[in-house]
Amino acid sequence: FEYYNVTYQPVQRQLLDFKKNHPRPIGLWTKNAGEPVDIRDTITINSDQFSNQLLIDTVSTVVSERIPERVATAKGTGAFGYFEVTHDVSKYTYAEVFNGVGKKTLVVARFATAFQNKGGSELAREMKTMAVKFYTEQGNLDMLSISIPVFAFRDPMVARDIVHAFMRNPQTNMYDLTSIYDLVTLRPSFVHSLFWIMSDYGIPDGYRKMDTFPIHTYELSSKHGETYYVRFNFRTELGFSYLTTAEAAAIQSADMDYFTRDLYNAIDSRNYPSWKLEMDVLSVHDLKKVDYNPFDITRLWKNGTFHTVPIGRLVLNRNVENQFRDVEQAAFNPANLVPGIPGPVDQVFRVERMFYKDSQNYRLGRNHDKILVNMPLYEKTYVRDGRPPVSLNMKNAPNYYPNSFHGPVPYVDEHRPWKKLQVLQSFSVDLEPAWYFYNYILEDEAHRLRFIANIVLTLVPVTPPVVQRVIKLLHMIDQSLSERVKAGYEVALAAQQAVANATPFETMSFRRVPSAEEYPLHEPQPLSMNPKI
Ligand code: HEM
């Protein structure tokens, strides 16, 4: 391998690496049913194509390679790794995965950017995500987390509207800032998360360098029957770092896959990305004292009302070998919980419990839990049949419950809490968290300026009545913020106008090749009137 150039990035030399690891062809090529391929079948021009099974296999499989992309977080990548318990948290939960310092659990993690389609840009200013599936001895625990600590809404009814407004316009097929700001001003619960996105937290410098937050307030139970309410945080051990809008734009012009590249290269070079997992804790006693709703996923918990407990480390140390098999087919479901973690109690979670399954049934099929990457370490169910994969389909075991013939039996979880908190939420929107964010979470004037510049930049293409509503909403949050955004917006608009005036738009034909247009066969026909339009 004289041509093996070690200065290539790992992503660029994957094929060379494969060849290095396999000095000879990996075997005989076969048709789909296993018959070895004769070399004369590989070229089909002027042959009896209908008798060529290789051709039929090839074309019929390539045309059906695609499955629906995820409706959100379609553009992503993933890796395997492990979670190691570093602190004793048995006081809070009896979940095996978090018990026993030094204990390691295999995980698969998927990273994505929220609203891009599969081929989209990772440099977009939007939420990034990390979903982790812990293959625990008590079943899969899935934690879905996002790169900012608050969510956009707490009424699940708007889940569809955020997907529609933040993704492509049905006519123009373009991302449309007008629809985004329109929805934000009509549903002001969005504004707090939008503020986080408009700040430096909106474009982290790659997946490795972002903190992520599972958002919901989870109920935990201890083996002594105590209940705790916690918010988990994954804190990157590399330290959070971000890209400015200008830096991101510069990178994007050359590399829309910057985050994927960075993650793959780092893992391949053994710079394993890692996060500390910790939790902010409120006891039932604390819960009664707080003057805010700790289950509201659009707001932060107030400093001084909770304490933080470290749990362990997440380390990603193995790139996946096949993205489709292990990442595209991965089905993360926040309802996949384990004993000791009864899970979130808010109303958004209740809807997630129902509809992640729905999305995965649609995307991957009803038996998605039997796809290799989703299979738990141990599983015995009464689920049978349906579209493949069916795995062993429980072979000849009894297929109904209860039965008296030794099919799988339930156990008694002695520590399971017998009370369930019922959380009621109010519809009113509190703008104080957004005010607090602008004045206190943005740590200095320089960050505030970048934040304002990012808002201004995104307002320029928005239709003026919606801009007015944005300014009004900002005014209700903080008067000086709205004045600064308004002033910046007017300057940006004037600058844009000046540029437009200086360079009048001209159309020019660059056609170099003859085309049918130049040799019309018939006069253009008027479009027939379609009564349905
Ligand atoms: C009613 C509320 C919600 C709905 C309807 C919803 C819907 C969805 C859907 C349909 C997917 C694609 C799932 C798939 O096909 O595999 C998804 C992915 C995701 N969602 Fe949500 N979501 C909701 C709330 C949340 C919340 C509160 C979080 C915060 C942690 C969240 C974080 C994520 C993440 C991290 C992914 C990516 C999973 C992956 O990488 O495969 N979602 N969501």
UniProtKB/TrEMBL annotation:
Gene3D superfamilies attached to this UniProt entry: 1.20.1370.60, Catalase core domain
Ranges where the Catalase core domain occurs: 30-409
One Gene Ontology biological process: hydrogen peroxide catabolic process
Cofactors required: heme
Family matches, as InterPro entries: Catalase, Catalase_clade1/3, Catalase_core, Catalase_sf
Keyword Metal-binding: yes
Tree of life domain: Eukaryota
Positions contributing to heme binding: Y356
Classification via SMART domains: Catalase
PROSITE patterns linked: CATALASE_3
GO cellular component terms attached to this protein's record: cytoplasm
Keywords, in A-Z order: Heme, Iron, Metal-binding, Oxidoreductase, Peroxidase, Signal
GO MF terms, alphabetically ordered: catalase activity; heme binding; metal ion binding
Ranges annotated as spanning the membrane: none
SUPFAM superfamilies, A to Z: Heme-dependent catalase-like
Similarity comment text for this entry: Belongs to the catalase family.
Entry protein name: Catalase core domain-containing protein
